[in-house]
Amino acid sequence: MVGLSGSGKSTTAQHLAVQSGAIRLRSDAVRKHLAGVSLHEKAGDEIYTSAMSDKTYTRLIELGAELASLGYRIILDAKFDRQAKRAEAISAAQKHGISLTFLHCSAPIEVLKERVMARKGDIADATADILAKQSMEPFGEDAVVKTLDTTQSMADVQNQLADLFG
C-alpha cells in the first residue's frame, strides 16, 4: 500500500486482505510494538522521528518478506511515501523471488483531511497537522504501481481491486 494519511490505505488493505486471504501488516502496529506502546494508546511525537520511521519500515519489510517467502500473501499497510523505503521493499522482494505491486491510494487533500479528523478507534495517530507535513516522493522506474481512487464507494473500490488483481 502507498498513500498519505487518510488516503484509504488501511480500509482498502483490510478489504483486500479479506478478499484475497492475505495477511495485512500495519506500519502503525509495528511502530508501536517497537516503541513499547500499546496499540490503542496515543503515541507521542518521539516515535515519529526519522530514525524510528526507518526502523519501522525496515522491520515491516523484513516481516513481509519472511512471511511471503513462506508462501503467504502479504499486504504491507504503510505510507511508503519515500523512494528509499520503496526501493528497500523492491530489493527484499527481488532477493526472495517475490512479486511486488505498490497499490497507491489516492484522494484529494480535502478528503484526506476529513478522513483523518473523523478517525475514531483506530491505531493510527495521524492528525490534520501531521498530514499537512506529508508529501509523496515520485515513484522510481523499477516500481510496479497501480493507482486506486478511494473517493468512490467501497463496492467501486472492490471492483477496481478485482480489475487490478483479477
Order of helices and strands: HEHHEHEHHEH
CATH homology superfamily: P-loop containing nucleotide triphosphate hydrolases
What is the overall pLDDT average? 92
Write the CATH architecture name. Answer: 3-Layer(aba) Sandwich
CA radius of gyration is 15 Å
Discrete helix count = 7
Number of domains: 1
Number of strands: 4
**Order of strands, widest sheet:** 1-2
Question: In CATH's first tier, which class applies?
Answer: Alpha Beta
Could you characterize what this model shows?
The chain is mostly helical and 166 residues long. It has one domain (9-165): P-loop containing nucleotide triphosphate hydrolases (Rossmann fold). Helices cover 49% and strands 11% of the residues. It has helices at 9-20, 27-35, 50-69, 83-96, 109-118, 128-132, 154-165; strands spanning 23-26, 74-77, 102-106, 145-149. A two-stranded parallel ribbon has the order 1-2. It has a two-stranded parallel ribbon with strand order 3-4. Helix 2 crosses helix 3 and helix 3 packs parallel to helix 4 (83-96).
